[in-house]
Amino acid sequence: MRSVMSGDDMTRALRRIAHEVIEKNRGVGGLVVVGIRTRGGPLADRLADLLTEIEGVEVPSGIIDIGMYRDDIDTRPRIELGPTELPGDIDGRTVVIVDDVLYTGRTIRAALDALADIGRAAIVQLAVVVDRGHRELPIRADFVGKNLPTSSQEHVTVRVAEVDGEDGVWIEGSDRGSEQ
Amino acid sequence: MKNLLTMEGVDRGTLDALLNDADEFYEVMHRPIPKVPTLRGKTVATMFFEPSTRTKLSFERAAKALSADTLSFSPGTSSLKKGESLKDTVLTVKAMGADLMVVRHSSTGAAWRVAEWTGLPVVNGGDGAHQHPTQALLDALTLRQHFGSLDGLRVAIVGDIRHSRVARSDVWAFSTMGAKVTMIAPPTLLPPDLTGWPAGVSTDLDAVLDQFDAIYLLRVQAERGGVSVFPSVAEYRQRFGMTDVRFRRLKPDTIVLHPGPMIRGIEIDSGPADDPRCKVLEQVTNGVAVRMAVLFQLLGGSKQENE
User: Fold this and answer.
1) Partner of B212 for a Cys bridge, out of A45, A163, B34, B156, CB 3.0 to 4.6 A?
2) What pLDDT, in 10s, does the model give residues B265-286?
């Protein structure tokens, strides 16, 4: 398992993303930060705290569970559902979805469907810690902590302190060292 | 979990997980658009070989809220009248593309047989006087919502326990989740053999009335002989009914549950039935939520995992 982002790297990336969110949206008015369960939740809280700190305006955050919206229930083991907790109505607001890894795009597709069932956001944007490529759907992130070219055989692990006890990004299952 | 056929022997982790999922589906039911795409493309067949209003409607509501399609079978209008066997009937419905069957039947073990014959996931929607597992789940959810937990909760189940599949499922679910259950009935309405039941017994409701956090009233089941073993309906009401007088003697925070349909004037008077501490309508709402959780559990996992 090879480290590709330290805890400090992640903190700096989140801070940069916070500034990019503010720049793109010309402030934080009407912004809601929503993390995808599990690791997106604490990441969304942190991003909202950074936005609040930088702009001096309270930015709310929440968490969304996509277990009811997956399109792969026949092929993958099911996981227990968790609560979706949004800080009030999202109608007409700008929602920044936060997740740890962007890979096939199917999780984000599910999150967009879940969000649409809850309310009608004016704008939805996506922030991820790592974009590892291999998209299966026409989805892209607006804010990326690190672009990480991977092979589909490799496994990317993002650890978040609130869930895993430490921050950082690792890659494993790689045989790129022996690639010719 | 491949099937849900009984509450007996189902472990606490499984019950907790189902109720946790049910909490989330309860939230879905209270959205402006109470529907999620979770089971799109799946077909749930409700095979009710015995009359039912709420359980059948509840399963169909649950399936539709999960975007599953439903096939509905009722014996009165079916080829059972022409002599078709139970086995041929369920295999026919399987051949039409059912992915899961909910089975209600007057014979104990009918749902097991259907699971064997079809190989499909089967939910027991009530078999004779034996088991009614989704009723127990919705009752447990109602208790958990109200009290936060069933741990240490004192629950009385009152009435026709002998003929009640609800009681047989409830005592297992409640006790597995940590409640102390007491069955209260006249001796003629208690099961002939009480060994192995995880519950205490009393035949005198008035003597223990103020000891419970929840009182679960059963319906007197005329269709299963519940009247013939008791001298009169009036006497039943007098000794075991939730009358206005008894209701006032309960602890002020005791709640009353009933599986429905309530027979007012026998097991419950109108005063208690319409009181906010009577949770019958919450039970009905929770029934849809737990059935969504059960359908999701049985149809919403990888096939490898379920087998």
Assistant:
1) B156
2) 999 999 999 999 999 999 999 9
A63, A66, A68: best to mutate for the B interface, most B CBs within 10 A: A68
User: B12-131+284-306 and B133-281: same fold?
Assistant: yes
Nearest to B301 among A73, A84, A117 (CB): A73
ipTM of the predicted structure? 0.86
The token duo for B267 is 């097991």
DSSP 8-state assignment for residue A85: B
Nearest chain B residue (CA) to A72:
B302
Peptide bond into A38 cis (omega under 30): yes
Give which of B105, B118, B104, B20 is closest to B58, Cα–Cα: B104
Q: How far apart are alpha carbons B114 and B123 in whole angstroms?
A: 10
Of A98, A86, A94, the closest CA to residue A38 belongs to A98
Which of these, A94, A101, A93, A95, lies nearest to A144 by C-alpha position?
A101
Q: Which two tokens stand for residue B160?
A: 């026709």
Residues of A in contact with B27 (CB under 8 A): 83-84
Q: Which CATH number fits domain B12-131+284-306: 1.10.3720.10, 3.40.50.1370, 3.40.50.2300, 3.90.25.10?
A: 3.40.50.1370
Read off the pLDDT of residues A81-138 as tens digits, 9 standing for 90 and up.
999 999 999 999 999 999 999 999 999 999 999 999 999 999 999 999 999 999 999 9
The Cα of A15 is separated from the nearest Cα of chain B by a number of Å equal to: 33
Q: So what CATH class is B133-281?
A: alpha beta
What would the two tokens of residue B280 be? 């019958």
Question: Domain coordinates of chain B in residue numbers?
Answer: 12-131+284-306, 133-281
Structure tokens at B180: 């102390």
Task: For residue range B62-75, list pLDDT tens digits in order.
Answer: 999 999 999 998 87
Cis peptide before B261 (omega within 30 of 0): yes
Those residues whose C-beta lies under 8 Å from the C-beta of residue B245, and which sit 6 or more positions away, are none
For residues A124 and A103, give the distance between their C-alpha atoms in angstroms, rounded to a whole number.
18
User: Which residue segments constitute the domains of chain A, with CATH numbers given?
Assistant: 2-69+84-173 (3.40.50.2020)
Whether the CB of B27 is below 8 Å from some CB of chain A: the reply is yes
